[in-house]
Design a protein that fits this description.
By secondary structure, the chain is mainly α. It contains 6 helices and no strands.
């Protein structure tokens, strides 16, 4: 042993984990790989706007499923419903989530607005 007490080992592990995570995120950013949250945000926007414009009956099922899953994770049912309804109202009014301008400035990047406005047929 190096003289470490049991109290300092978790601290060192968390420092090492934080350093690893920082390097990992920097590498992912350099590779322009979207995070899990980036993918989830785009998928939710697409699902809600598509349901609003093409499949309104699906919105009811989507809402119920998302709320149930949030409640199963420990979130408040009324809070989850309110947040989903707030997002739906914003999307219905034409609101899109905040784009990441640093990605649009990169070489070869194309505008992503066509797929973010809910008009994509994919």
């Amino acid at each position: 042993m190096t003289g470490d007490t049991d109290d300092t080992i978790p601290h060192r592990k968390s420092e090492a984990q934080a350093a690893w995570q920082k390097a990992y995120r920097a590498e992912q950013a350099a590779r322009r790989k979207p995070s899990r949250d980036d993918v989830a945000r785009v998928a939710l926007h697409w699902a809600i706007t598509r349901a609003l414009t093409k499949e309104p009956q699906y919105l009811t099922k989507l809402r119920a499923t998302i709320i149930e899953r949030l409640v199963a994770q420990g979130f408040d049912r009324q809070g989850a419903a309110a947040r989903f309804d707030e997002l739906t109202d914003r999307y219905e009014d034409g609101w899109t989530f905040q784009r990441k301008p640093h990605l649009a400035r990169a070489a070869g990047a194309k505008a992503v607005a066509e797929d973010q406005d809910g008009k994509s047929e994919r």
